[in-house]
């Protein structure tokens, strides 16, 4: 990536943080291990494309697994008007999300929980879910179990968005008989190195 292009991306990231009155930039490896991965914020350009898809709005509630400092929650609440729920197991990152909530322009629409995703009881209002590889397949399995439990208790359409999906995720999801593959949002053109994983895969639990 060229220096000029790197500077442009850096400015864009910081410009959105400033507009939303939050601080979410920078990777954080605190507490990362083989099953729970490091915090790396989803690029704003990717979130802009997701927001523009028309797949969520004021009537929806989005659940973000591995919420980190809260970028996904704050941005999508601001851009689409949806309500958001963020789940984060790392106390350091959770505290930063709560700190951001004190100043964020969309704070009234966001809620955060300090909890293990595998044991989190999914609210029956949740009908949109976002993943940016927050954990390994070992944790994804029980997470999907909790999502299905919530879906079975309150039948509604739930859309699941997987950004930059790992191959182990794709293999697992494609074999799940309850899930329907809906579409993908291509994000490869947003970056200077075209990667096959630069996309958002969309799956559906039917209503």
> Radius of gyration, Cα only, in angstroms?
16 Å
Strand content: 15-25%
Record the strand order, biggest sheet: 3-2-1-4-5-7-6
Distance between the termini: 43 Å
Q: Runs with pLDDT <50, length 5+?
A: none
Main attributes of the structure:
Rossmann fold; 7-stranded mixed sheet; 6 helices; 35% helix; 19% strand; globular
Note down, in words, how this protein is organized.
With 207 residues, the protein is of the alpha/beta class. The protein has one domain: Rossmann fold. It contains 6 helices and 7 strands. The protein has helices spanning 3-20, 44-51, 71-80, 91-101, 137-153, 167-175, and strands spanning 61-65, 83-88, 110-114, 128-131, 158-163, 180-186, 199-205. A 7-stranded mixed beta sheet has the order 3-2-1-4-5-7-6, with helices on one face. Strand 2 (83-88), helix 4 (91-101) and strand 3 (110-114) form a beta-alpha-beta unit. Helix 2 (44-51) packs parallel to helix 3 (71-80). The longest helix has 18 residues, at 3-20. The radius of gyration is 16 Å and the shape is globular. The chain starts with a helix and ends with a strand.
Short description:
It contains 6 helices and 7 strands; from the N terminus they run H-H-E-H-E-H-E-E-H-E-H-E-E.
Helix and strand topology:
Elements: H1 3-20, H2 44-51, E1 61-65, H3 71-80, E2 83-88, H4 91-101, E3 110-114, E4 128-131, H5 137-153, E5 158-163, H6 167-175, E6 180-186, E7 199-205
Parallel strand pairs: 1-2, 1-4, 2-3, 4-5
Antiparallel strand pairs: 5-7, 6-7
């Amino acid at each position: 990536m060229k220096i000029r292009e790197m500077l442009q991306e850096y400015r864009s990231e910081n410009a959105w943080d400033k507009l939303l009155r939050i601080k979410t930039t920078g990777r954080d490896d605190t507490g990362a291990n083989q099953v729970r991965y490091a915090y790396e914020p989803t690029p704003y350009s990717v979130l802009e494309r997701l927001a523009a898809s028309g797949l969520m709005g004021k009537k929806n509630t989005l659940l973000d697994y591995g919420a980190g400092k809260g970028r996904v929650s704050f941005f999508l609440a601001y851009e689409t008007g949806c309500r958001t729920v963020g789940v984060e197991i790392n106390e350091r990152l959770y505290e930063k999300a709560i700190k951001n909530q004190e100043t964020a322009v969309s704070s009234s629409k966001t809620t955060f929980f300090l909890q293990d995703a595998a044991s989190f009881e999914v609210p029956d209002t949740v009908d949109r879910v976002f993943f940016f590889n927050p954990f390994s397949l070992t944790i994804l399995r029980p997470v999907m179990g909790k999502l299905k439990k919530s879906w079975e208790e309150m039948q509604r359409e739930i859309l699941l968005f997987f950004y930059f999906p790992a191959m182990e995720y794709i293999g697992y999801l494609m074999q799940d008989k309850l899930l329907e593959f809906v579409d993908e949002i291509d994000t490869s053109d947003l970056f200077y190195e075209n990667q096959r994983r630069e996309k958002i895969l969309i799956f559906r639990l039917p209503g």
